[in-house]
Please model this.
Amino acid sequence: MPPGGAERTRSDDHAGAGLGLAIVDRITQAHGGTLVLTPRTDGGLIVTVWLPHPYPVEPPA
Model:
């Protein structure tokens, strides 16, 4: 399992700008979806993206 929160390390080779979740949020919004971020007890996040089905099913008549 990947290290979480405090155990993670970054080197200058992999320093991020912190844009990842902002980009995911904008894409999710553009598609009418929902972004859910849930903190893990040992650090890190559980990221869940809910998107609507592209072809809604009509209920039977």
